[in-house]
Structure formats: C-alpha cells, structure tokens
TrEMBL record:
This is Thiol:disulfide interchange protein. InterPro entries: DiS-bond_Isoase_DsbC/G, DiS-bond_isomerase_DsbC/G_N, DiS-bond_isomerase_DsbC/G_N_sf, Thiol:disulfide_interchange, Thioredoxin-like_fold, Thioredoxin-like_sf, Thioredoxin_CS. The keyword Signal applies. Residues 120-244 form the Thioredoxin-like fold domain. It is found in: Periplasm. Residues 1-20 form the signal peptide. Belongs to the thioredoxin family. DsbC subfamily. Required for disulfide bond formation in some periplasmic proteins. Acts by transferring its disulfide bond to other proteins and is reduced in the process. Keywords: Disulfide bond, Periplasm, Redox-active center, Signal. Residues 29-90 form the Disulphide bond isomerase DsbC/G N-terminal domain. Gene3D superfamilies: Disulphide bond isomerase, DsbC/G, N-terminal, Glutaredoxin.
Length: 253
C-alpha cells in the first residue's frame, strides 16, 4: 500500500551521484541537499536540518529519515548512535519532528478518553477494525484509572482509496465514526464490531492518515508519548504506565 521511496536508492545510486555532482556549487548546503534528494526520488521533504554527524544533514521525507552529506554526494540510512551517551540520535530526531507535527492537530480532531486529572497523555494512531486496536480499547477504562489519557487519531490501515480509486471500507467507516453525533460512543461501538451509521461531514480522517504516513507510522495501534517518541504497538495499561514512568524518570521528570 505504502511505497518506501528508499527502495529506489539501490537502483539509482550511480544516477544519484551524477545528479548531485551537477548541483551548482554556489548554492547553500540545504539547497544542495534538497536538490540531491529530489533528484533521487519524488518525495515531499518535511525537514532538513544540520545533523550531529559533521558534514551531514538530517532529512525527513515521505515517512523516512536519512542523512545526506552537505555536498550532496552521499546518503546514509539507518540509526545514528552517539557512542558517548549511548543515545539514538535518529530516534531523537524523529521524536522532535513527531512532537511538533502532533501539536498541530486540534483537540477537536481527536477522539479522547481521559481521566479527570491525567498523569500521562499519549496519542494513539488507530484503526477501528484491527484486532490489537480493539484489544487495546477494551481496556480504556483501565488506562484512565491508571492516569493515562488516550487521544486517538484516525489511521485506516487500508488507506484512504483502493487501487480502483474508491474510498476503502475502513476509511468510510472511520469517517462515519468521526462524523457521528456522539463520536466516543460510535468509536467504542465500532471497536466492538458494530458498524456505525453512515455519516459524512467535514472530517480529519484523510489528513490524519497522511500525517501518520509522514510520521513513519506503518501499522496500528501506534502509541506516541508526549515527547514524540514511539512507545510501541499494543500494550496493556500496566506495560504502558511502566514505559511512561520510566521515560519520565530518564528525562528527570
């Protein structure tokens, strides 16, 4: 369903270097990096910033994070590890980007299940039909009892449109949920296997699916902490609380 643009890297390596060599020398490093990446594949570049790795820029494009040399000649994929601190620089880069992008999603576009005074808040990219998504939502009261607020964002695994160009069944169902008079009730009913009443309205489902793609989401559920880091897929309330407390402790919270 989703094409990984990095698959073009192996087939285009020689072409990529040739394109990079033709980039005008007077241009700034970011411009060189941008043109080199766009010369490799048709992608939407979300972020270009200097990398902790000297001479390289961190580029986030179409759900991928790569490192490109300032002269546009080399690209590296994979995680960048700081051996001194033993920290994953790539994960930190992703987390910063996710946090900034998720902050742009209005509360009105999410379906929120929260206790009165949450200790933690997580964003969950979800599909109403996936088994693990349903299993997670079965324990929503237990998550809230543990002080965890769940803020759901729509991510129909089938995508928005089929190969024939028609809306996928899951997308249509999730639009109906997001357009229901009582979203939370329709959401919970859909998670239990009850089809929602057909409804349409101005809704964020397509935008939220595309947001997930940009953030590197590949499956559901995907749980994202407030700092933008991905905690995992399905987790029990106990597992999630432990992971959140551990992350807060590591951050000095």
């Amino acid at each position: 369903m989703l094409k990984k643009w990095l698959l073009a890297l192996c087939a285009s390596a020689l072409t990529f270097q040739a394109i990079a060599a033709d980039v005008a020398a007077p241009a700034g490093a970011e411009t060189i990096v941008r043109q080199a990446v766009l010369g490799l594949a048709k992608v939407k570049i979300e972020s270009i910033k200097p990398s902790p790795l000297p001479g390289f820029y961190q580029v986030i494009a179409s759900g991928q994070l790569v490192y490109v040399s300032a002269d546009g000649k080399y690209m590296m994929t994979g995680n960048l590890i700081d051996l001194a601190s033993k920290k994953d620089i790539s994960d930190a880069g992703w987390a910063e980007f996710r946090k900034a992008e998720l902050a742009k999603v209005p509360a009105a576009d999410r379906i929120v299940f929260a206790p009165a005074k949450p200790l933690h808040t997580v964003t969950v990219f979800t599909d109403v039909n996936c088994g693990y998504c349903r299993a997670l939502h079965e324990h929503v009261a237990d998550f809230n009892k543990a002080g965890i607020a769940l803020e759901y964002i729509a991510w129909p695994r089938e995508g928005v449109n089929s190969t024939a160009g028609n809306p996928t069944p899951t997308y249509t169902e999730m639009v109906s949920v997001w357009c229901a008079a009582d979203r939370k009730a329709a959401f919970t009913a859909a998670k239990s296997g009850k089809k929602p009443k057909d409804a349409t309205c101005a809704n964020p489902v397509k935008d939220e699916f595309e947001l997930g793609v940009r953030l590197g989401v590949t499956g559901t559920p995907t749980i994202v902490a407030e700092d933008g880091s991905v905690l995992g897929g399905y987790m029990t309330p106990e597992q999630l609380l432990k992971a959140l407390d551990k992350r807060n402790k590591a951050a000095g919270g």
